């Protein structure tokens, strides 16, 4: 595997984890929102990832073909989508709330704050690991250039 492939793959991981962090943060920010533009409570979201074959942007010619052959078994990651949680809302009795129904029940988002915090920490650690991979590949590339010079 060439070192540029390592940088590309880690870059895809960085992007995926940044999306994961943004979605978990959005869920926390909206954990108490009872009225969205659509009219109902906020629905928490989650990121769905998928593995995709790594396809280097290889130049034409023998080198490009060799590079494609060498990397044909690698897999990258991409965001397949962001999905809403289909679980029912949490019902809380609060007759003074502006969004309470006739029985005093308020439908609240089903956001598990602890789960979102754990997801934020996990995304942060995965992001750091991918950033370290980029730095390592960069250092290896620079060392290879020193040897070649």
UniProtKB/TrEMBL annotation:
Record's GO cellular component terms: bacterial-type flagellum basal body, rod
Family of the protein in this entry: Belongs to the flagella basal body rod proteins family.
The name this protein goes by in its record: Flagellar basal-body rod protein FlgC
Assembly information from the UniProt record: The basal body constitutes a major portion of the flagellar organelle and consists of four rings (L,P,S, and M) mounted on a central rod. The rod consists of about 26 subunits of FlgG in the distal portion, and FlgB, FlgC and FlgF are thought to build up the proximal portion of the rod with about 6 subunits each.
Top-level taxon in the UniProt lineage: Bacteria
Pfam families referenced in this protein's UniProt entry, alphabetically: Flg_bbr_C
Record lineage: Bacteria, Deltaproteobacteria, Dissulfurirhabdaceae, Dissulfurirhabdus
Keywords, alphabetical: Bacterial flagellum, Cell projection, Cilium, Flagellum
GO biological process annotation, one example: bacterial-type flagellum-dependent swarming motility
Transmembrane helix recorded as keyword: no
PANTHER family named in the record: FLAGELLAR BASAL-BODY ROD PROTEIN FLGC, FLAGELLAR PROTEIN
Organism: Dissulfurirhabdus thermomarina
Localization terms from the record: Bacterial flagellum basal body
Residues covered by the Flagellar basal-body/hook protein C-terminal domain: 104-146
Keyword Nucleotide-binding in annotation: no
């Amino acid at each position: 595997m060439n070192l540029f492939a390592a940088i590309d793959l880690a870059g895809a991981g960085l992007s995926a984890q940044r999306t994961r962090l943004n979605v978990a943060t959005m869920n926390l920010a909206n954990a108490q929102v009872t009225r969205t533009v659509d009219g109902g409570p906020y629905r928490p979201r989650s990121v769905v990832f998928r593995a995709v074959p790594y396809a280097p942007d290889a130049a034409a010619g023998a080198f490009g073909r060799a590079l494609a052959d060498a990397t044909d078994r690698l897999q990258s990651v991409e965001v397949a989508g962001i999905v809403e949680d289909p679980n029912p809302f949490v019902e809380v009795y609060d007759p003074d709330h502006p969004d309470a129904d006739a029985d005093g029940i308020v439908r609240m988002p089903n956001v598990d704050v602890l789960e979102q915090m754990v997801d934020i920490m996990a995304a942060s650690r995965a992001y750091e690991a991918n950033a370290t991979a980029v730095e390592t590949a960069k250092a290896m590339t620079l060392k290879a250039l020193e040897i070649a010079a």
